[in-house]
Design a protein that fits this description.
The complex is a heterodimer of chains A (117) and B (113). Helix content of chain A is 0%, strand content 56%. Chain A has 117 residues and is an all-beta fold. Classes of the chains: A mainly beta (117), B mainly beta (113).
Chain lengths: 117, 113
């Protein structure tokens, strides 16, 4: 079935350290993997995404890696800052929920990241 | 700035009431989704719609229904609210045929007493 596992559920780091969140997915046909950040009282916001034809993508202090063979992908945050504290969700695409073949996203259960000053 | 707007940030309703949660998007997206978010359970899909008047059940549709009369508006209906429907409800939208990320609203925190 469609499943995305995310670990850890909570993560606490010191300011300046790196943080890594890992996800695995069940469907080898999945080809799109976004990451969302949800700050307190807000809806999730897309922070970075990666497609299956790419192994790694970076955007300043954030990077995502993808291993399609092992069906896992990871979010890396370097030089963490207190404002990185939030809940992070990974997701994977699963195809074909309508005749047009639109994809739907299945989400992991989230990781609460706390960056201590 | 493109947006998904949920009409209420906080709602308190009584058990047995009929509850309407409204969501409007201004991006001309075909796909719209309703999720509920509970601690430790992540985001669970309730219903989604890929066109006007079209709807599909998600993973937890029991106790809910939806309405999509216009492309920009997707409503979630709790026919008879129960305390176990106390939760954060999130609406999202996306473009079809593309694996682009969803755009989420800010959420409605519903408390059923």
């Amino acid at each position: 079935g469609e499943n995305v596992e995310q670990h850890p559920s909570t993560l606490s780091v010191q300011e300046g350290d790196s943080a890594v969140i890992k996800c695995t997915y069940s469907d080898s046909a999945s080809n799109y993997f976004p990451w969302y950040k949800q700050e307190l009282g807000k809806g999730p916001q897309l922070i970075i995404d990666i497609r299956s034809n790419v192994g790694e993508k970076k955007d300043q202090r954030i990077a995502v890696t993808l291993n399609k063979t092992a069906k896992h992908f990871s979010l890396h945050i370097t030089e963490t800052q207190p404002e990185d504290s939030a809940v992070y969700f990974c997701a994977a695409s699963f195809r074909g929920f309508n005749a047009g073949g639109s994809e739907k996203l299945v989400f992991g259960k989230g990781t609460k990241l706390t960056v201590n000053p | 700035d493109v947006k998904v707007t949920q009409s209420s940030r906080y709602l308190v309703k009584r058990t047995g009431e009929k509850v309407f949660l409204e969501c409007v998007q201004d991006m001309d997206h075909e796909n719209m989704f309703w999720y509920r978010q509970d601690p430790g359970l992540g985001l669970r899909l309730i219903y989604f719609s890929y066109d006007v008047k079209m709807k599909e059940k998600g993973d937890i549709p029991e106790g809910y229904s939806v309405s999509r009369e216009k492309k920009e508006r997707f409503s979630l209906i709790l026919e008879s609210a129960s305390t176990n429907q106390t939760s954060m409800y999130l609406c999202a939208s996306s473009s079809p045929g593309q694996a682009y990320g969803y755009t989420f609203g800010s959420g409605t925190r519903l408390t059923v007493v």
